[in-house]
Amino acid sequence: MTWIIRGLLICSLGTLLAAVWLLVQPTPKPALTLVDSVAVLGQIPVGEPHFAVFTFRNDGDAPAQVMNLEPTCSTKVCRGSYHKVPQTIPPQSEAQYLIEVKANAPGEIDIDAVLFVNDQGLRKVPIHISATAIANPEQIDASPRP
Fold it and tell me: What is the pTM of this model?
């Protein structure tokens, strides 16, 4: 009878140790980093869509998401996310997030916006997009950018 009690105690102790071990294991966490928060589009023709590209790097060990940027329009510019659903970035990888920009009138464009990312809870990531909208495509300076 004693051997049965000892066997049950050993099994219980083993189960308890396994449960404690599982509890102390680190939880996988994503860690998103925006590589560059500024996109300079240069000169863009009025009425034609262009894309600002933002690269996110997930250095964590769990997937993370970049939420969609709500589309907005003004008399000067329309902007919105190219992606139709939140973009999931796998662990230890990079992904590009595209924002469509379409100028409605000639002039300087400066857009300050906020992307929402879900890596360690929902948090805001500020971005900036700049361009010069021109009415005539022949006026575009095609010289290389640094």
Answer: 0.73
Phi, psi at 25, each rounded to 5°: -70, 140
Please give the backbone phi and psi of residue 59, each rounded to the nearest 5 degrees, phi first. Answer: -90, 5
List CB contacts of 93: < 8 A, sequence separation 6 or more: 57, 58
Q: Is 95 within 8 Å of 56 (Cβ atoms)?
A: yes
Number of domains in the chain: 1
pLDDT tens digit string along 66-123?
Answer: 988 888 888 888 988 888 888 899 999 999 999 999 999 999 999 999 888 988 788 8
Name the residue range of residue 127's domain: 32-138
Strands annotated E in 32-92: 32-34, 38-45, 49-58, 64-66, 72-73, 77-81, 87-89
Helix (H), strand (E), coil (C) string for 37-48: CEEEEEEEECCC
Supply the CATH number for residue 88's domain: 2.60.40.10
Nearest CA to 78 out of 99, 107, 54 is that of 99
Q: Which residues pair with 139 in a beta bridge?
A: none
Q: Alpha helices, DSSP H only, in the chain?
A: 2-24
